[in-house]
Specification:
Length: 179
């Protein structure tokens, strides 16, 4: 695995770039307090002050070449519509992704497009062995995103995710790098 950090990624419609402290208001006004995000991320509503504080010093995190955290922007308007981040496991050369997209932009193919950019970056440039992620089995839209990105469903992890209403089973998806 070759660490290169959070590099800007681009498709026809999207730009994936580093999160900045100045993004707090737009993130706050976007997805961070939407009911679906709060439920599936098992989080509580945030105030603007909490969002601002959560991004303080984020620039210093990007000094580490093993830190991967993008906001997803529409190329034509520069509007933030979501985010993707990676958890790195160096020993097994594996990255696990998490993503969110603003409900106002669901069902337009943006999340699949963004995840494909990150997947290709991880497999081709970072040379990861395994690119993986999962979703609560009730989250059919998220399952569909991973399927559209040609990831294989490996099975169900029972009682793996705890949400506000208790434990849920999780689909686990991955793609293996055939270097």
């Amino acid at each position: 695995m070759i660490h290169k950090g959070t590099k800007e990624l681009e498709s026809n419609r999207l730009l994936l770039c580093r999160v900045k402290e100045g993004d707090a208001l737009e993130i706050f006004n976007g997805f961070v307090n939407q009911e679906s995000f709060l439920y599936y991320a098992n989080k509580e509503k945030r105030t603007l002050e909490e969002e601002v504080n959560s991004l303080k010093g984020i620039d210093s995190k990007y000094l580490n070449d093993d830190y991967y955290n993008w906001v997803i922007k529409l190329k034509d308007t520069n509007q933030i519509i979501g985010s993707i981040n990676l958890k790195v496991e160096d020993i097994n050369e594996t990255v696990e992704f998490n993503y969110v997209i603003d409900e106002r932009f669901w069902n337009k193919g943006y999340m699949s497009e963004a995840l494909n950019l990150v997947k290709d970056y991880c497999l081709n440039e970072l040379c990861v062995n395994r690119f993986q992620g999962g979703c609560c089995i009730e989250n059919i839209a998220s399952k569909r995103v991973m399927e559209k990105c040609n990831m294989q469903c490996e099975g169900i992890l029972r009682n793996y995710i705890i949400l506000s209403d208790g434990y849920h089973d999780m689909y686990m998806f991955s793609i293996i790098n055939n270097k």
